[in-house]
Design brief:
The complex is a heterotrimer of chains A (about 110), B (about 260) and C (about 625). Chain B is of the alpha+beta class and about 260 residues long. In chain B, about 60% of the residues lie in helices and about 15% in strands. Chain C has a single domain, classed as Up-down Bundle (Cytochrome C Oxidase, Chain A). Classes of the chains: A mainly alpha (about 110), B alpha+beta (about 260), C mainly alpha (about 625).
């Protein structure tokens, strides 16, 4: 966001920020509710999925609006796409490898 | 000699140098925290049944810190917007708020660290475990504010136990087998908790120092080159938002699950 | 032009910049003006923000580290060939400097382990990467793309200082009680956390500094290549060297942070006694270690090799870039298959992130994951072969000009070929189970890096030396250096293939004596005497390799002041922009912003007077 963008209006930013803050408050409460709710079963798997899902919404707001990723240039998208891909590769393949020991051998 | 595109956007890429630089840096940060989060997942998945702690951290503090960081992210954006419309006074106000919020965050974080530091688990000779916050100790005895459990497993999942009674526990030094506080060495949860939040706190500290510089002595540039100064605010803001983004995942991962 | 030689390294005050911008016609009145602005020694040589000075700083420091790494290697080879025998000549020195671990000039097993770990660390992180990526990249990339400097000159300086500091920490660790790190350059846990020395903590702190340096450098390189290309320098007009550096920078940017994460975790293990990589029930020489347990040693290996494998391409890609430039220049024709080279480099860079676990077949991983990593490993060999093939085909039909840089570049091709092809059996799990951790592996990756990458780096030194100093290095001694290095390199590493296939394990301080047929007669599969004898051969070949570097060292320093002066700014008649600058380039590089109108390798264009057409030269036909 440098020159050649649409003129900035401070008031509209304050409005946007107020909305984002309210949503962040709601999502945070929702996460806490999901963490303590009795309706999500006794195990942690479903609960973690729901909570992380809400966290992703939260992260989307910060990245999309506060970091204005939604109106960013292709170059930045390209860099971030590769980064996210390799991050998924790192975590996914490591987890796969750690879960894929032959039957009967000791894990870890 | 002047390096091109330090202020203006390069036409074909559409961004200026520092912005590309900070996004590349953030990409590497994604991989840094990505590696640590991968470690977290593996340690958690690999922990023996019933040995991954739940409810060890106080959700109230985590929530307050989440809100503080969210607010500071917003004031950072507004500080940049104020620079953009050339309202220097408002910029000073908003970024002043950012610095205060960041310091409050660090204050709460250090209180939480302290709370873990004085929290002890004591293995007793009769096979039971005393657990609680240290009140006082001398050569003869140790006084905890906590409880005694029969099975060490009861100390892991605090969320599953509805009515935990805490009281004063006096322990004879002679009956102690092992006494250890909840430092990073306690188990893999405290280890990853201290490492992740510690590295995150270092990022907060670094970001605060940069923002403080731009707010204080560095703001002289506003008078000579306001556009470049605005870019600096934007770039440091991007870093700050990333730090907030990391916390958005740290909070649920460590406090809520 | 010759008067400019005295400006080396170029001045860096604002006033000097203004003059540089006006070109060199003003050179005669520079003296009077400069008297009161002349930057001092510190800002000129130590705290310089000029990419060329930083490049030379990186170059000299990393060459020194490589020499030190070579010294460690020769010491290790002595110990392998003559275990327990005092080191001749240098032994007393070792004993005096290092004390107990080198008592009576004998290298103890602990010291051998230290030397092994530090040889690997120094060669990879303090030698080849800083030379290939940081030194050549810093000096050449901005020149090639027509930029006045790197995008972030001060970050560039910080990057060098972080590197230098990291190197110092590594060196200091030799002198602390317990000695330097002993767990190999891979620092596998739990070994790295159980050896009683603080050297490992030093190693980790040093690594964090080196990683920080690489990250800053990578950000700077990518931003420079994207943002500071001069008008007309489109992506497909970039010299292949720039492409190679671009891909390398991305590898460093995205693969290094997970190792930094792992390094922090291991540092916590060693300093704060956490158990990230220490399993439950860990026993250290008998009793169970006092750790909480619950950690995973394999996690370290995953995080380490997530960097470790891309690191191989960090070592090799810049070398390929240098070789491509030199081959195009000395065959006097366009490099064959420029686009294939570029796409192959990009594919290599992409795939480099998803092959890492082929270093871990022996960790008991399952078939599914092993098959996946075998497949990606085999696939990544395709673009590597494409690159090598393009370079071989570039030689076809060229009127090849033989000089020292070209000799080293030509030497690179078969050496890298051997290194690459012997890697295929290691990429297949079944063969790797047998060859893993033998000397075969050592021979394989040394063929890639030592006669491969390091030859390319020598080629680069000889090639760009005239641009850096305005003088050539001695051609005769250059050739002596090449042929001796070539012969001794092969004598050192070729026998290791045989030793490895016979089952000699690496990392043994006695060189396998305890497994030799002489020690345990009658046992099947012991190491026969012929294999053991090779250790002596390798020792003397290694000594010869060390001696072969003396002509290079003398040539390098002697030529700075006594070499033959070049007659023009473009002594090799090259097309790329780095040769269109004054010699040596002043601060800011170009007299005026160059305008690029053609591809990077317009050699021998039909109808042109010269057999080279610089990228910035208008008129004539363009190949691209």
């Amino acid at each position: 966001m440098s020159e050649s963008e649409q003129p900035v209006d401070l008031k509209s930013y304050i409005r946007l920020c107020a909305v984002i803050f309210l949503v962040v408050l709601c999502t945070t409460s929702a996460m806490i509710a999901a963490s303590f709710s009795d309706h999500l079963g006794s195990g942690w798997t479903g609960r973690v999925t729901v909570i992380l899902g809400i966290a992703v919404i939260n992260a989307f707001l910060v990245a999309g609006y506060l970091m204005h990723l939604l109106s960013e240039k292709k170059l930045v998208y390209t860099v971030l796409c590769f980064t996210v891909f390799f991050f998924i590769g790192l975590m996914g393949l490591t987890l796969w490898a750690m879960g894929n020991f032959p039957v009967g051998t000791i894990n870890h | 000699m002047e390096i091109p595109y330090t202020v203006k956007n390069r036409p074909d890429t559409g961004i200026y140098n520092a912005k590309l630089g900070v996004w590349l840096f953030l990409a590497s940060e994604v991989m840094l925290f990505g590696g640590l989060f991968s470690a977290y997942v593996l340690l958690r998945v690999g922990a023996p049944e019933g040995h991954w702690p739940h409810g060890w951290l106080d959700v109230r503090f985590g929530t307050v810190n989440t809100i503080l960081l969210a607010l500071s992210a917003i004031t950072t954006l507004l500080a940049w917007a104020a620079c953009k419309v050339r309202e220097f006074g408002k910029f000073k106000f908003f970024h002043g708020c950012t610095i205060l919020l960041a310091l409050m965050f660090l204050g709460i974080k250090s209180y939480e660290y302290h709370d873990k530091w004085i929290h002890y688990e004591i293995q007793l000779k009769d096979g039971t475990f005393a657990d609680g916050h240290l009140e006082e100790q001398d050569d003869k005895q140790v006084v905890l504010h906590g409880r005694i459990v029969k099975d060490e497993k009861d100390l892991y999942d605090l969320r599953a136990q509805k009515d935990i009674q805490l009281g004063e526990v006096k322990i004879d030094r002679a009956s102690i087998v092992k006494m250890q506080n909840y430092g990073p060495w306690h188990n893999t949860f405290t280890a990853i908790y201290f490492t992740l939040t510690g590295l995150h706190a270092l990022h907060i500290l670094g970001g605060t120092l940069v923002i403080f510089y731009l707010w204080g002595p560095g703001s002289k540039m506003y008078k000579t080159d306001p556009e470049r100064f605005t870019n600096r605010i934007e770039v440091s803001g991007l870093f700050w938002h990333f730090v907030d983004l990391v916390w958005i995942f740290l909070f649920p991962v460590l406090y809520l699950t | 032009m010759q008067s400019n030689v005295q400006q080396f390294p170029p001045n860096r005050t604002e006033e000097a910049d203004a003059h540089a911008d006006h070109g060199h016609d003003h050179g005669h009145d520079d003296h009077g003006h400069h008297e009161h602005h002349e930057p001092g020694f510190w800002s000129k040589y130590i705290f310089s923000t000029d990419h060329k000075v930083i490049g030379i700083q990186y170059g000299l420091v990393s060459l020194s580290f490589m020499l030190f790494g070579l010294f460690l290697m020769v010491m290790m080879r002595w110990q392998i060939a003559h275990p327990g025998v005092p080191v001749p000549v240098i032994g007393p020195l070792l004993a005096a400097v290092l004390g107990q671990p080198a008592a009576h000039g004998i290298i103890s097993p602990e010291l051998y382990n230290s030397f092994g770990a530090m040889h690997g660390t120094i060669m990879v992180f303090l030698g080849v990467v800083p030379l290939a990526f940081a030194a050549f990249g810093n000096y050449v990339v901005p020149l090639m793309i027509g930029a006045p400097d790197m995008t972030f000159p001060r970050i560039n300086m910080a990057s060098f200082h972080a590197f230098y500091l990291g190197g110092l920490v590594m060196l200091v660790s030799f002198f602390i009680p317990g000695g330097a790190a002993q767990a190999g350059w891979t620092s596998y846990s739990p070994l790295a956390s159980t050896i009683p020395t603080d050297g490992q903590a030093f190693w980790l702190v040093g690594m964090v500094l080196l990683i920080t340096s690489s990250l800053l450098g990578a950000v700077n390189f990518i931003a420079t290549i994207i943002q500071l290309r001069t008008p007309g320098m489109t992506w497909m007009r970039l010299p292949f060297f720039v492409w190679a550096q671009f891909v390398t920078a991305f590898l460093l940017l995205l693969a290094f942070p997970p190792l930094e994460a792992a390094g922090l975790l291991q540092l916590m293990d060693n300093v704060a006694h956490t158990s990230f990589f220490l399993p439950t029930g860990l026993a250290v020489s008998g009793p169970v270690g006092q750790v909480s347990g619950g950690g995973s040693p394999l996690l370290w290996q995953h995080l380490f090799w997530f960097l470790g494998h891309p690191e191989v391409y960090v070592l090799i890609l810049p070398a390929m870039g240098i070789v491509a430039e030199i081959i195009a220049n000395n065959t006097r024709k366009p490099i064959w298959g420029y686009k294939s080279l570029v796409y192959a480099a990009l594919v290599v860079g992409f795939l480099a992130f998803i092959v890492w676990a082929h270093h871990m077949y022996l960790t008991g991983m399952g078939q599914g994951i092993a098959t996946f990593f075998q497949a990606t490993t085999m696939i990544i060999s395709i673009p590597s072969v494409v690159i090598l093939t393009c370079m071989f085909l570039s030689l076809w039909g060229g009127s090849i000009r033989i000089n020292t840089p070209m000799l080293f570049a030509l030497g690179f091709l078969p050496m890298f070929g051997i290194g690459g092809l012997t890697g295929l059996p290691l990429g297949l799990a079944a063969a790797d189970l047998y060859l893993h951790d033998t000397y075969y592996v050592i021979a394989h990756f040394h063929y890639v890096v030592a006669p491969g990458t390091i030859f390319a780096l020598f080629a680069g030194v000889y090639f760009w030396f005239p641009k850096m100093t305005g003088r050539r290095m001695s051609e005769f001694w250059g050739r002596v250096h090449f042929w001796c290095s070539f012969v001794f390199m092969n004598l050192v590493f070729m026998p290791m293939f045989a030793q490895g296939i016979k089952g000699m394990l690496r990392r043994m301080s006695d060189g396998g004596v305890n497994y030799s047929a002489a020690k345990v007669p009658g046992v099947i599969d012991t190491l026969p005497g012929t294999v053991m004898e090779l250790n002596t051969w390798i020792l003397w070949a290694a000594v010869g390799l060390g001696i072969a570097q003396i002509p290079f060292i003398i040539n390098l320093f002697w030529s700075i002041s006594h070499g033959e002066k070049v007659k023009s700014d473009n002594p090799w008649h090259a097309t790329t922009l780095d040769w269109q600058t004054p010699t040596p380039p002043p601060h800011g590089n170009f007299a005026h912003e160059p305008q690029v109108v053609r591809g990077p390798y317009d050699y021998s264009l039909p109808g042109e007077v010269n057999d080279y057409t610089p990228q910035s030269e208008t008129g004539g036909k363009s190949a691209h």
